[in-house]
Model the fold of this input.
Amino acid sequence: MDISGLVGKDFVAVQRDATISEMIGKLIAADQREALVFDKDKFLGLVVEKFITKSHLDASTAKLTGLVKNISPVEKSMDLLEAARLMFTSGIDVLPVQEKGKIVGIVTVNDILTEAKSLPGFKGIKVRDIKQVSTPKLTSSDIVGKAIEMLHKEGLESLPVVEKEKLNGVICFHDILKKIMIEAPMRDKGFRNKSSRAFEAERPAAMDLKVDNFDTHTHCCTVTLGDSLAIAIDMIKEKDVHALVLIDENDNKPLGLITTNNLLRLIASFSNVEMANIRFTGLEETKLRPDEKAQVKEIIAQESEKIGRRLNNEYRIDVHIKEYKKESKKQKYDIHLKLLSPGKNFTSSGVDWDVVAALRMAMKGLEKSVLRQYQEDISRKKLYGK
Done:
C-alpha cells in the first residue's frame, strides 16, 4: 500500500528570505502548523510551530533560515509503513512529496493514521494496548513560559492542565503561538500588516501570561483505556490535535497522553517481512503490547534472513517465548531458539527483563553457532575437496 492516494495539495509555502512573522501570518490564515520553505523553486525543508516558540528571535525582522529542518522529499510510490517509520524517526508530522523533482503536495500524519486503520494488524487494538506518555501537568496559575519549557523538554505538542487533580483542559503550541504572537501583541504595541499578512509586534510580557489566559478547552479531547484505537484516530483527525488525554473514566483524572507519535510507532512496527520459515510459541500469551510483539517478529525475521544465507535459505526457526510473572509490574523473558536445517540443528537462548535484549542475546548465540559450523564446512571442503 503506497501513499499516492494520500497526497494533498493544501500546504503553506514560503521563501527562505521571508521573516518569521510573515510565515506565522500564513500559518494562522491557513490554520496550518508547518510551512514548506523554498529558495525560489528549490525545496529546502520544513519549519514547524514549536521551532518558533523555542527561538528568541525578533519575529518581525528575523529570517527563517535558522529554523528550517532539512528533510528530503519522498515519492508517491513510498510504502505506507515506510512513511510511518520516517515520520516517527524524524519527529515530523508532514512529508513533502515530489514528482519529477518538484514538490506536488504533502502527506500528513492524519493521512497516515486514517489509512492505517485498514491494515490487517490494526483491527481490535484498544488504547490500553499501546504505549502511553506519562507527562508533567500544569495548573491554570502557571505561566506560559513554564508551559513552553516543559513542552520542549518532554518533546510534546500539548500538556494537560489540571485543577485539584482533575482534567481542566490542555495547552498546546498552536494556541500559545496564536496568543503570544498575535492576540497579546495586538492589544499592546503590535499591529497586523494587511498587505503581507505578517504580524509585527512587541511582546514584552508574553511569557509571563498565565495559562488561564489561554483557550485550554478547544483542543482538549479525551479517551479511556477501553476505547478502540480507531475511535482515537477519528477523534485526532476530527479535532485536528496531536494528542489525546488518557483519563480514568471513573474520576476524570488524567493518566497520560496518547500522541500521534505513539500511533506512528505502532504503525511503523507493522512488518511486511517474510515469516514463512519462522514459528512462534508463547508470543501471543505474553503481556507485550501489539507494537512490541510486532518488533519481536521483525527482529527475528531480519536476523534469521542473515543467518539463512549461510544455510542456502534451507531452514526453519522455532521461537519459544516464556514470560515469568513476578509480583512487580515487570516481566522476565526467557527466549529459546531452535534452528532446523538439513543435517544440522542449532539451539540458543536468552534471558532478560527486556524482551528485545533477551531476543538479541538468543539471536547472537544462534548466529555464532551457525557461523562456526559454516566455517568448519568451508575448511572441510578445502581440506577434502568436498
Notes: The domain at 127-267 is CATH 3.10.580.10 (CBS-domain).
